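Can anyone check this?
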Amino acid sequence: MAYLDDLFGLKDKVALVTGGSSGIGAMISEALVRAGANVLLASRKGERCVAMAERLNGLGAAGRAEGFSGDVGSQAAIAELVAQLKARTGQLDILFNNAGISWGAPLAEFPHEQWQRVMAVNVAGMFTLTRELLPMLEAAASDADPARVVNIGSVMGTVPVAEGAYAYTASKAAVHHLTKTLASELAPQRITVNALAPGPFPSKMTAFATGTAEGAAKVGANVPLGRIGNQADIAAATLYLCGKGGSYISGAILPVDGGMSVENHVSLFANL
């Protein structure tokens, strides 16, 4: 266990997880707390973050959690989130840009105004919050143990599929590109920047499709590995990128998608 703790343990680390009260954000938060980190959860629904922090603190894990209200939908909201964070801690080792929204409509009916809304949260919010927290991250960074930024992208930002979520899929492609750009620019400050690109996981955003066992099975049938993602899939990827074992990884878009990003429907000679 000492070997695994050395590679993936996060004792005394402080992390911020936006959108940390449900779905993938909650999975990330639990993984961090179980690994020993002190985790700050922020979302627009502050009471849900408080409730999630209480649940996590009841696990008896090595880390602790604290929830509060925080929004990344505008510059003013981000400034308030940063102020709330600094009132709670003077240390930040790990930033998870997980908050995100979506909108779905047929191509002919997709509303122009939803582009601004989705891009403001998923792309501009991610960028501006990271920029504002760079002094704290840089203060926590070292050659041997960089500070970490992990952005949540999507398989929909990797493969050309929209299924009505045109703004969302474009925003996640932008997240992937910004991840690589920031990884290049922040390496001299000893800050790694990576992204997770999940496939289908249970969440509020996907509840319409994965909210029942039958629905989850139908969605899972579209995944090469035959199922939707779960807590362990996100936890392992989280600890890999944030622990000592991931200190030499930057600029990666890590697919956590059951093989969807490399699925190929083209048949050349298979039927000969």
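Reply from J.R.: I decoded it. Residues 202 and 254 are 19 Å apart (CA to CA).
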